[in-house]
């Protein structure tokens, strides 16, 4: 009898130790954060919240300059953004995720937009004015070695994004006499492929983590709405729909499980929402009186 009781205790102890070991391997809750820009009463500045919209933190502040278009480094260790501080036209900066250690990476006379770091951490992709049109460029992560990827005196290339593995770049252009279509190219600017052929303008294309879907926004019923297509351009699916409100500036969760975006639905000025990748389970994450833009999670 005593032996049986001892065996039972040993079994319970082993089960307890097993679950303790498993819990150590589980990721902690609420570790993801959402980065975005919002007007703080003076200028657009950069903020972050927890993935559920709680614990808002302002990362930049100024009564004479904006900080805008933020993006996470792929490993979540840095933030890249545009600012006209330092009396500039709009340069690329980096900072730590708590807003410290702000570094200016470019020094040009033109405005720059939408900086993002490559998967391997070596290159920053962005757009800048060239011959009166926005074109695409890369620099090294420290700001050196600028390389122009697109060029035209009659058409723009804009809103670029890296493929998650860093092998391709996706962007919008009105080349080929289009209104603004989705294109892909190699990271050196070669092998440019047109992926869509529509009569409407499209913006902000980005590839999913598994490389199968491109997320973007396009005009529908006079408002920007969210869509996906297959990576090759086929099988367009509309995710949001409204004749009174927009859904805009979408981004994938890093693991591809969610989409974050801005909408003025629910009679708001423009709040952060999340949804499943098929457009279901739409959740409002912020509730403010200001306009918010460019949400992205890590």
TrEMBL record:
In this protein, which residues make up the domain named Prolow-density lipoprotein receptor-related protein 1-like beta-propeller?
42-198
Top-rank lineage group of the source organism: Bacteria
* Sections of the chain in a coiled coil: none
In the record, which residues are listed under signal peptide? none
Q: Which InterPro entries match?
A: 6-blade_b-propeller_TolB-like, LRP1-like_beta_prop, WD40
Q: Which Pfam families match?
A: DUF5050, PD40
Q: Which Gene3D superfamilies does the entry mention?
A: TolB, C-terminal domain
Entries under PANTHER family matching the protein: PROTEIN TOLB, PROTEIN TOLB HOMOLOG
- What does the sequence similarity comment in the record state about its family? Belongs to the TolB family.
Give the protein name, as stated in the record.
Answer: DUF5050 domain-containing protein
The species is: Aureispira anguillae
Q: What is the lineage of its organism?
A: Bacteria, Pseudomonadati, Bacteroidota, Saprospiria, Saprospirales
